[in-house]
Amino acid sequence: MSGFAAILLRDLRLSLRHGADTLGALLFFFVAGTLFPLAIGPSPAMLARIAPGVVWVCALLAALLPLDRLFGADFEDGSLDQLMTSGIPPTVIGAAKAASHWLSTGLPLLLAAGPLAIMLQMKADALPALLAGLTAGTAVLSLLGTAGAAIVLGARRGSVLLPILVLPLAVPVLIFGAAAADAAGLGISPRPHLTLLAAFLAASLPLCPVATGAALRAAVD
After folding, report:
1. Nearest to 140, CA basis, from 66, 210, 63, 193
2. Most CB atoms within 10 A, among 81, 90, 140, 177?
C-alpha cells in the first residue's frame, strides 16, 4: 500500500504540474457536447432525448486524451524502469496509474457532466442516474484505458492503436450507462443498468491491473 500511495501521489503531483492535460480533456468534453445542438437544432425535446448518449460519448472520448502520457513519459525518461525494479509489483503500479487517471481526468469529467447535461435540456429526474452511472463508468474507463496504454507502450503509432483497442471494450459500459439515464428520464428504474455497470467495475478492478502489469513487464523486457 505504501508503494501504491507513493506512485499515486507522484502522478497526482505531475498532473497538477501539467494541468493542460486535464484542462484539454474538459474543454474537449464541453466543445464536443455543444456541437450536437448546433448539428441537430435547438429543440428541447430532441436534446433531452439524446442528452444521456451525448454526455457518455463525450466523456468516453475525453477520457482517452490523456492516456497517451500515462506511461509514455515514464517510459521515455527511464522512470518506468526504476519503478519496475523498485520491488513494487507491476499490478500495483497499474492500479496506481489507473487511480491517478481517474482522479485527474475521470473525476473532473464527472463534475462537468452535470452542467453539460443541464445545458442539453436533460430531465432533472435522470441526472442522479447519469452521475451514478458515470461514477462507475469512468472508473471502468480508467482501468481499461490504463491496460490499453500499457499494451501499446513502445509500439509504433501507439497513440493511434490505443483508441482502437479501448473503444470496443468500452462499448458495453457506454450502452448501459446511457440506458440507465435514459430509463430514469422515462420514469423506469435504472437499477438493472447501474447493477451491470457495478458488475463491470467489480470485474475490471482485479483483471485490468493484472493485464497492465503483464504488459508493463513485456514493454520493459
Report:
1. 63
2. 177
